[in-house]
Design brief:
This protein has 16 helices and 18 strands. It is α/β, with parallel strands linked by helices. It has three domains: about 180 residues, Rossmann fold (3-Layer(aba) Sandwich); about 190 residues, HUPs (Rossmann fold, 3-Layer(aba) Sandwich); about 100 residues, GMP Synthetase, Chain A, domain 3, CATH 3.30.300.10. A nine-stranded mixed sheet has the order 2-1-3-4-9-8-7-5-6, with helices on both faces. The two termini are about 40 Å apart. About 5% of the residues have low confidence. The site of xanthosine-5'-monophosphate has 12 residues, from loops. The site of xanthosine-5'-monophosphate (XMP) has 12 residues, from loops.
C-alpha cells in the first residue's frame, strides 16, 4: 500500500487512482496522521500531495516530522515537495514568475531510477508559485524546466524524492510511468487486482458478519449490483436483496434487473411500490421536495420489508471511495460515514450495522470487480442513474402519463446511442421532459405538444462534464424518432451546456 498524505490538492484523489492503476493499492490519508496510525496501515511508501498553500503562510498544513524520518520512501509532489524540502533543511522561495500549465521538463539525471528510461524530455503539468531555492542536504537536482531550475530532486540513499510537476494529471502523459517507478523504488508488489480484492473483501466480510443476517437494497445500478454479488459470494443465503420498484425506473429496467439476479441465484425480494411513490409525488413540482418525498417513501417501504424478514443485523451499501473522501472532515484522521443519498436515514432508524465492501474503491475499479464476479457487461457498463430516478428528469409534476412519455423518449435516446456504438464513450445520455409546450405542424395539422430535451455528456467523473459532440446523424435520428414515435412530443432540443455552469441532470 502507498499512503497519499492529502495536503489539500484538487488532484489528491487522482494520485491514489493512478497509483492503483500501477497495480498498487493506495489510500488517501490526512496529512497530520500520527506515526503510530500510519505504521498500523503498513504502507511501503508515502506520497505527499500538492496543496494550495505556501509553506511560509501561517497555518499552512505541516507534516509531523517523525513521519518523514521513519524510513519510508517518500515522493513529494508540488507543495508536498516544498514541504519536504523545508522540513529537511532546504529552502523554498517565491518564484519571480509562477508556472501554471504545460511545461517541458528536461531530465538532468537520466540514470536516477525515478526518471530512468523516460527519454531526455517530458511534457509536464505545472501549477505553482513557490519553488525550491536550495536543496536540502543529501539531495541533488534531477530535472529542470525553463522557469524552474529544480523541477525534480532526489536523495537516492534515503529514497526521498520531490517533483515540482504533477505526474497524476492527464496533461503529464508520462506521469503514470513516473509513479510506477516510484512504486518500484518502494518495493511494492503489483498485486492490486480485482481478483485479490474479491478474495480479501470476501474474507473480511465473512469475519465481520459471522452468522448475522444482511439486507441490501438493489437499485439496478452497478454499485449495488456489485455489493450484492460480493456479499452473496461471502455469506450466501444470509443475504437478502430487496429491489424496490419506485415507478421511476427506465423502460425495461425492472425486467432486466430481475432476470439478471434470478440467473445469479440471489435471494431477492421484489417490491412494486410505484403507487406509493406516485401518490407521494402528486402535486409536487419542487425538485428538492421531490427528492425528500422519494427518500422518505423509500425508507418506509424498505423498513416494512426489513421488518417482515425478522432479525436483520447488517445493511449493505454500495458506498464508494469518493463519497468517503468527500465526507471526511479535513484535518481529522477518522473518516466520517456519509449515509448514501439513496438510502439515507435507514441505518439510524433500523439500528443496522453497516457493511460497505466498496468503500475503498473508485468507480472504474468497481466495474472491474463486477466483471471479475461474472456480472454481464451490460450491467457493469451502465451509465450512472440518479437514485430518485426519472422524477428528476420530469421537470414539474411527476404523473404516470408524463413518466410514460419520458420513458419512451429516453428509450429511443439510449437505443440510438447504443446502435451508434457510443454507449461506453458517452458518460451519460438521456431524455428530459420539459414543462414546455410549443406549436408544431404535423400532416398539415397544427399541434401544440411537449418539448423533450436530450442531454449527453462526456466526463471522467461527474464533477465536471462537457456536452457530448454527438454525430449530427445520430442526433437527427434521435430527434426524428422521438417526434414520430412519441405522440405527445413535437419538438426535441439538445443541451449544449457544460458542467459547470450547468449540472448534468436538469431537475
Ligand atoms: P449533477 O446533476 O449534479 O449530477 O451534475 C452529478 C451526477 O450524480 C448523479 N446524480 C445522482 N446519483 N443519487 C445518485 O446516485 C442521486 O440522488 C443523484 N442525483 C444526481 C447524476 O446523474 C450525475 O451522474
Amino acid at each position: 500500500m502507498i499512503a497519499v498524505l492529502d495536503l489539500g490538492s484538487q488532484y489528491s484523489q487522482s494520485i491514489a487512482r493512478r497509483v492503483r492503476e500501477c497495480g498498487v493499492y493506495s489510500r488517501l490519508l490526512p496529512y497530520d496522521i500520527s506515526l503510530e496510525e500510519l505504521r498500523r496501515l503498513k504502507p511501503c511508501g508515502l506520497i505527499l500531495s500538492g496543496g494550495p498553500a505556501s509553506v511560509y503562510e501561517p497555518g499552512a498544513p505541516r507534516l509531523r516530522p517523525e513521519v518523514l524520518e521513519a524510513g519510508w520512501p517518500v515522493l513529494g509532489i508540488c507543495y508536498g515537495m516544498q514541504l519536504m524540502a523545508q522540513h529537511l533543511g532546504g529552502e523554498v522561495g517565491a518564484a519571480a514568475e509562477g508556472e501554471y500549465g504545460a511545461a517541458r521538463l528536461v531530465i538532468d539525471a537520466p540514470e536516477e531510477p525515478l526518471l530512468a528510461g523516460l527519454g531526455g524530455e517530458l511534457d509536464v503539468w505545472m501549477s505553482h508559485g513557490d519553488r525550491i531555492v536550495a536543496l536540502p542536504p543529501g539531495f541533488r537536482p534531477l530535472a529542470h524546466t525553463a522557469n524552474t531550475p529544480i523541477a525534480a530532486m532526489g536523495d537516492a540513499a534515503r529514497r526521498l524524492y520531490g517533483l515540482q510537476f504533477h505526474p497524476e494529471v492527464a496533461h503529464t502523459p508520462q506521469g503514470q510511468a513516473v509513479l510506477e517507478r516510484f512504486c518500484r523504488i518502494c518495493g511494492c508488489a503489483q498485486s492490486w487486482t480485482p481478483a485479490s480484492f474479491i478474495e480479501e473483501a470476501t474474507q473480511r466480510m465473512r469475519a465481520e458478519i459471522g452468522e448475522g443476517q444482511v439486507i441490501c437494497a438493489l437499485s439496478g445500478g452497478v454499485d449495488s449490483a456489485v455489493t450484492a454479488t460480493l456479499l452473496q459470494q461471502a455469506v450466501g443465503d444470509q443475504l437478502t436483496a430487496v429491489f424496490v420498484n419506485n415507478g421511476l425506473l427506465r423502460e425495461g429496467e425492472v425486467e432486466e434487473v430481475l432476470e439478471l439476479f434470478r440467473d445469479h441465484g440471489l435471494r431477492l425480494r421484489y417490491v412494486d411500490a410505484s403507487a406509493a411513490f406516485l401518490a407521494a409525488l402528486a402535486g409536487v413540482s419542487d425538485p428538492e421536495e421531490k427528492r425528500k418525498r422519494i427518500g422518505a417513501t423509500f425508507v418506509d417501504v424498505f423498513e416494512q420489508e426489513a421488518r417482515s424478514l425478522g432479525q436483520v443485523d447488517f445493511l449493505a451499501q454500495g458506498t464508494l471511495y469518493p463519497d468517503v473522501i468527500e465526507s471526511a472532515t479535513p484535518g481529522k484522521s477518522a473518516v466520517r460515514i456519509k449515509s448514501h443519498h439513496n438510502v439515507g436515514g435507514l441505518p439510524e432508524r433500523l439500528r443496522f450495522r453497516l457493511v460497505e465492501p466498496l468503500r475503498y474503491l473508485f468507480k472504474d475499479e468497481v466495474r472491474r470487480v463486477g466483471l471479475a464476479l461474472g456480472l454481464p457487461e451490460s450491467m457493469v457498463w451502465r451509465q450512472p442513474f440518479p437514485g430518485p430516478g426519472l422524477a428528476v428528469r420530469v421537470i414539474g409534476e411527476v404523473t404516470a402519463e408524463r413518466l410514460a412519455v419520458l420513458r419512451r423518449a429516453d428509450a429511443i435516446v439510449r437505443a440510438e446511442i447504443a446502435a451508434a456504438g457510443l454507449a461506453r464513450e458517452v458518460w451519460q445520455y438521456f431524455a428530459v421532459l420539459t414543462p414546455l409546450r410549443s406549436v408544431g405542424v404535423m400532416g398539415d395539422r397544427r399541434t401544440y405538444a411537449q418539448v423533450v430535451a436530450v442531454r449527453a455528456v462526456a466526463a471522467e467523473d461527474a464533477m465536471t462534464a462537457d456536452w457530448a459532440r454527438l454525430p449530427h446523424d445520430v442526433l437527427a435520428r434521435i430527434g426524428s424518432r422521438i417526434v414520430n414515435e412519441v405522440p405527445a412530443v413535437n419538438r426535441v432540443v439538445y443541451d449544449i451546456t457544460s458542467k459547470p455552469p450547468a449540472t448534468i441532470e436538469w431537475e
